[in-house]
# Entry
Amino acid sequence: MTMKRRTESSLTRMVSGLTRYAVASACLAPFPVFAQTPPPVSLLPPTMQAPVVPTAPPQTVQPLIAPEIILPTLSASQSKQLAELIRKDVVAQGLSDTPGTVPRDNDGLIRAALDHARTVHSGRLAEGDFQRDWAMRPVAYDPLPALRNAIVNDRLSAWVAALPPPYAGYDTLVEGLARYRAIAEDGGWSQLAGTDVTFGSSGARVVALRKRLATEDSTVKASGDKFDTSLVEALRRAQRRYGLNPTGTLGAQTLAALNVPVDARIRQIKANMERWRWLPPTLEQNRVQVNIAAAVLTLFDGDAPVMSMKAVTGRPGDETPMLVSQIHSIVLNPPWNVPSTIAGKELWPKEKAHPGYLARNGFRVIDNGDGSKRLQQSSERSALGRYKFDFANPFAVYLHDTPAQAGFARFDRLASHGCVRLEKPGALAKQLMSNTPEWSAQTIDDTVTAGKTVRAKLAAPVAVYLLYWTAFANQNGQVSFRDDPYKWDGTLASKIEARSARQTQTLAAR
# Structure
């Protein structure tokens, strides 16, 4: 999940590694038209199904750049090189798996290259395709000046290699995609039959389990029919990669995760690569980063992770939005101004059913002056705990403490109304305030102990990113997966499919 910018050496590796990602010199459309046939019906429980992201059929790349733009001229060798680079890069960047062709004429090839550049750099969605709680937008990007320069200086390979998001987290997904494609080409993996395999047992099902784990974990010995301690540890590693309780036993959730087909995992990787393209080209080195799907917060200082903690994020139906903002202040001992939706659905009915419930739980009924009423919970009993981290956003969400600490012991931690609850808010507050002289760690502790509500302003705002990663990889290409609790991977695929279909219709009408 790291967002550290790729180094120059890794960029060089990407340039030299383009051929590695091109299977049979495949050539694909930068705005592919996705197959209209429905995907196979999954027999897995809905919570364990991987996202369905359609794959494009073979087709000719159709340029979308306006024809009146004056385009640069390629030499014969550059034309051949650029066409080959695009064919390889479309495969490497996960835009499709099937080959196609690129235009042979100069202007058609240039326009196709520019369209490909926009797709790889900024994604395949238009402004109107983003739903409200995907509150992130790619920065406006014009690839033509850089392409002109690359042609003049004969640096087309470097230009293509610099198109993707400049972050190691994206690069590792590219590597992971290549790895899972290789698994798929080798036949993928077989479905495991059941959970009646335990430590000490042996036989065909143990052989099948060991072989299945070895497919994704190169440290597992693929042969052997004994469920021994090495297989227990291999199972625990797999469970950690899937965000499950690492018991080392083959339960129903683990079985379901292992039985997600490799093609579905490939589609999941592609969906996350698309979201990487929405990020700005430069991230703040000091930032707070939340993975909504994994319910984990990480604090970066100088672009290095210095603190990580469990979080509780929004449950399906009360989704935590994707957004970028800046934490400007921390409220110590915050009262809770209850959102009207929560008050109406949960608290007023409890008061009606059990008169005195609101008073017993520290709620005050406040007259709004227009005949309506709202609820506020005192800081002593606040559901926000002792810390609230404020940042501007249109969703009224924030990071906060919680008295309900038991929730952090769960592996499924999507349970909030949309805000992000923190396991160690005090430690985060002190770290964020370390450059604010008037708010030393001791001063923070004393203020919290006193119980008075105080807003502490940070000397310098700290960037906060709420992101939705259901697939992420380490530097060895080892991919971890999470469930798609909001079904945003599938929604994204549908929007890409609809956008591609509209673009194809527009081109056909010309």
